[in-house]
Amino acid sequence: MAEADDEGLPQHNGHHFLLVAVGIQSHINPAGVLANRLARLGVDAPVHATLSVPVTTYRRMFPSPAAASTDGVISYVPYSDGADDGSWPKDADDRALRRRASSKSLSAIVACFAARGRPVTCMMCTVVSLPVFDVARQHNIPVAIYWIQPVTLLAINYHYFHGYNELIVSHATDPTYEVCLPGLSPLRIGNFPSFLIDMSGSERGKAFIEVFQELFEYMDQWRPKVLVNTFDELEANVIREMKKHLDVFTVGPMVGSSTEARIHLFKHDNIDEKRYMEWLQAQLEKSVVYVSFGSVTKNSKQQMDEIIGGLRQCGRPYLLVVRKDGLEDDGESHHSLEDTQSQLGMVVEWCDQLEVLSHSAVGCFVSHCGWNSTIEAVVSGVPVIGVPNMFDQLTNICLIEEEWEIGIKGERNSHGVVTGTELARCIELVMGESPKAMVTRERSKVLKEIAQAAANAGGSAEKNLRDFVKTIQVSDTFCMDDDGTMSKSIKL
């Protein structure tokens, strides 16, 4: 059972936020940034933050047993899901077992903090964590949802579970059918998050529906605060609409900075980083095509061959990031990818994406369009070529291409492959001298300036985060029960 260590943990003075994250890179990154921002707020009373991750993730973050459980700003504590092997639940029974184990572990962490005079005053989770809701109810602690996707995705999911599910499901096999949801532009079925239109009957699809249904039932009953990793100017209409239904705080862009410790779960060494940064330094401004498909997507050898072919065809310098475990053949073709390296391009297994996107040599980002990658592209002012696969990626590329006009979608052929010819066409459309390319680059530049203003000290992200903390402070006060749990004593 995971417990909180004494060393480096905040004393009971002010607020203590316990942020529970799913143990994958796309959740860990924004969770770590939020925890840092909370701890650095400096409101009237101190704000402390602890990031809790699964045991397997914690071990990757701190491989040495002697590693500190704090980085000097936030603290870290592992929780157990009962399996502790990094696997996903196999079926409903397995999900139930892991929920109970996670709840028991998190409850022990909360009780341990309270017993040591460091009570948790608000629990938070990335998107959805049913064990967090269980533990918060058990200990009578307020909950806040950290929605790490755009507010458009929050709206789509909210309306699906509030009267629109039959309409969406009935047209799930027609990708061109348009659905009009409150506050949103008409959205084609093909741009809905994949699990809402999954008619295969897969275990994963059913699990997502069940979990999100319980999330919105919890929201309806308990009305938790919802922090969203976006900013007002990016999704103004849908933000206004969702504030009619939920207590929404836009706290983005939640993109790490040099003052915040970055969490990289993938092993890498500084020699490789030095190598690709030196290579970037030697390239012309806005000349490099940066290609990366995130930490989850796996690509076939055929798809990677087409990507390499397209990059060669366009004739521009490229930086291609492909992990060995990101290939469907378990990395056997990685050596052949490395053999394609020349003066024109470079293939690496890992890079610091934000550092690369911020480099003046990068002129285009070929991406799977996960939200972290999307918001990093926005903040960096880099146009996007989207190659989405699943989940929110299908909606994000719609926003990129149609709402914000900062990129285009690479179309797949009948075999589900983006051909090299199609990729080269997209790159030219974004990096060439056509009117379309000019508009795309100008829009990217404008959004970058707006995003950076929101992220700067005193900007909307900091202001809204302060407002959120104040609502927690004025809403509830707590007292310690004899058994060490927290209970609400006064409603102010």
Automatic annotation (TrEMBL):
Domain of life according to the entry: Eukaryota
PROSITE patterns: UDPGT (PS00375)
EC number: 2.4.1.-
InterPro entries named among the record's database cross-references: UDP_glucos_trans, UDP_glycos_trans_CS
Pfam families assigned: UDPGT (PF00201)
A GO MF label: glycosyltransferase activity
Signal peptide positions (record): none
Keyword annotations of the record: Glycosyltransferase, Transferase
Family: Belongs to the UDP-glycosyltransferase family.
PANTHER family for this protein: GLUCOSYL/GLUCURONOSYL TRANSFERASES, GLYCOSYLTRANSFERASE
Protein's UniProt name: Glycosyltransferase
Native source species: Urochloa decumbens
